[in-house]
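Quick illustration, no need to memorize.
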Amino acid sequence: MPATPFVHVHRITYAECTLGNHVYHSRYLDILEAARGEYFRALGHPLLAWQERGVLFPILRVTLDYHRQARYDDTLAVTVELTLARGARLNFSHRMHNQHGLPILTAESHHACTGLNDKPRRLPAELLAALIPRLAPAPDATLPDAVNRADPAQKP
């Protein structure tokens, strides 16, 4: 059974907008960060708890494709799907739609798992066990099933 995507709802504030009444382009990164934070909270593994344990997930790469502008007071549905959980890597895909169902943005974010010393470390087994069932189906038919995209060395 495919994983159910996580959806975070965000209302655009005046502070996120330009004089032209649309969201300033870099503010979308803040919205995606908030959505990923809520994803981890809904998973039962808040990011703050991992930070307190000395585990961080800095971004290595992010791509954004803008489809249309979001405006002040729009309500956005931000879909977050885990696409990779292996070794010291976590990748997510994101889709953002407004209250009319129109696409605003699609994005990919790639994260490392590090300690407070910025050195890469394997994803904690406890977190990996919670993430594996939520891996999105592979978009490429040549890839093995989603479970095989997890790190085989880590046993849940």
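The beta strands are 6-11, 55-56, 59-66, 75-86, 89-97, 103-112, 114-115.
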